[in-house]
Write a sequence for this structure.
């Protein structure tokens, strides 16, 4: 059980204290409450400590002998004769007083400290929560920054690609200007006529008009030619453009078309566009290939009953030849200009030396189609390509192994059932061959030598 100090009423925790020797009192006192130091306490004798009385008990003893006191007890007389040490006369009233004000102040101080501690604890809890929220936000921000960095990398790659495409467009624009200037130099009369009329014809339209110019054969007036449409499906857009171009050029030619079943009858009143290039024999009794006008269809062949395969092969070799330019990759600009200025419909080129780094737009104008067979091993020489107008159909096929495609450069594979397949064996790259085929309306054309 804890014991309180008789002076300050605080709990005595220390083992160094003073206890009153009177049996009625036996109170304990701190050394500090008695104004004693530890050195002085250790200097005291055991007899003095065992006989020591507290300040309250000492205050009850008279300080001097008063003989005039009416009532004197024997005990008081004996106590008066008792001798005291000088320390007994020390005034210890200061330590024996009850300090109620100091005790209240300490209690208030403890309460304030307790409240301050609780407040600081709550504030620290709030700070910890805020730090957790900030940590989550920092993690989310870091994730977003990583995503933005990856997106920026993609955008940089796209921007570099756009720059490359813009540079390529500038090169193509320069080529376009050069071709326009060369076209103006070749056709100065047409250029002056266009300037006089005030209509501006672009390079693409000029090329289309050059490709779609209708060349007619020398046919007697009011001659009626009946042809049967082929199985090839002609696109509506191409037919519409061809009709527009034909109407623009041949304003003096009047046509009347009547559909009788599956036959189309073309009535011609006037023939102003003879085509000497495709004329092969003028007599109806000959078995040579006889060409007709190329207007609504690309090319129509009228065959006699006695026409044999050799006649077809001879005529095809005449109008579709192949040229060995050797190194087309070093002559792209010249070839591009030659194709644009030429009115041919088919070009067969061998030993091109092209690879996948060369785009089709660098070889041919937009109004042509191309079928390429490049070198797969990356060698500079070798490879071939077919360049044709959209009127042709270019496709890849694989021939059986028993056909010797190296026998000759051009070979007629099939000429039955109004279908003509022309195999250009020199265009073979790695087992596959380039084929230009598909019936009378799309098997014709003329290939001019290119170098």
């Amino acid at each position: 059980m804890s014991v309180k100090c008789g002076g300050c009423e605080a709990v005595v925790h220390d083992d160094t204290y003073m206890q009153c020797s009177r049996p009625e009192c036996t109170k304990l006192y701190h050394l500090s409450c008695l104004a004693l130091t530890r050195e002085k306490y250790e200097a005291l004798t055991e007899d003095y400590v065992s006989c020591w009385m507290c300040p309250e008990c000492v205050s009850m003893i008279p300080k001097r002998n008063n003989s005039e006191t009416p009532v004197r007890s024997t005990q008081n007389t004996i106590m008066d004769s008792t001798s005291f040490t000088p320390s007994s006369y020390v005034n210890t009233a200061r330590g024996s007083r009850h300090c109620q004000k100091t005790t209240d102040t300490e209690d208030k101080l403890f309460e304030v400290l307790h409240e301050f501690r609780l407040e600081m604890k709550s504030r620290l809890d709030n700070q910890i929560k805020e730090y957790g929220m900030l940590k989550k936000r920092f993690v989310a921000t870091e994730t977003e920054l990583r995503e933005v960095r990856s997106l920026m990398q993609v955008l940089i790659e796209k921007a570099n690609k756009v720059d490359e495409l813009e540079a390529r467009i500038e090169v193509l624009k320069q080529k376009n200007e050069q071709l326009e200037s060369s076209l103006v130099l070749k056709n100065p009369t047409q250029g002056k006529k266009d300037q006089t009329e005030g209509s501006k014809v672009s390079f693409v339209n000029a090329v289309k008009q050059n490709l779609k110019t209708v060349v007619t054969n020398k046919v007697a007036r009011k001659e009626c030619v009946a042809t049967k449409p082929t199985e090839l499906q002609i696109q509506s857009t191409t037919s519409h453009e061809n009709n527009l171009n034909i109407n623009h050029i041949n304003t003096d030619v009047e046509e009347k078309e009547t559909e009788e079943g599956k036959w189309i009858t073309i009535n011609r009143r006037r023939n102003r566009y003879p085509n000497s290039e495709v004329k092969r024999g003028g007599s109806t009794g000959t078995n040579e290939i006889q060409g007709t006008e190329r207007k609504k269809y690309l090319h129509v062949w009228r065959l006699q009953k006695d026409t044999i395969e050799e006649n077809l092969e001879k005529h095809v070799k005449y109008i579709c030849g192949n040229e060995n330019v050797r190194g087309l990759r070093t002559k792209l600009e010249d070839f591009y200009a030659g194709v644009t200025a030429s009115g041919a419909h088919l070009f067969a080129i061998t030993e091109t030396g092209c690879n996948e780094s060369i785009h089709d737009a660098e070889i041919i104008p937009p109004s042509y189609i191309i079928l390429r067979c490049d070198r797969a091993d990356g060698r500079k020489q070798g490879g071939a390509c077919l360049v044709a107008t959209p009127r042709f159909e270019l496709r890849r096929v694989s021939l059986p192994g028993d056909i010797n495609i190296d026998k000759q450069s051009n070979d007629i594979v099939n000429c039955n059932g109004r279908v003509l397949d022309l195999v250009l064996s020199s265009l073979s790259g790695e087992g596959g061959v380039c084929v230009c085929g598909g019936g009378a309306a799309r098997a014709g054309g003329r290939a001019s030598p290119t170098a």
The CA atoms of residues 299 and 444 lie 5 Å apart. The chain has four domains: 17-98, 101-201, 206-304, 316-437.
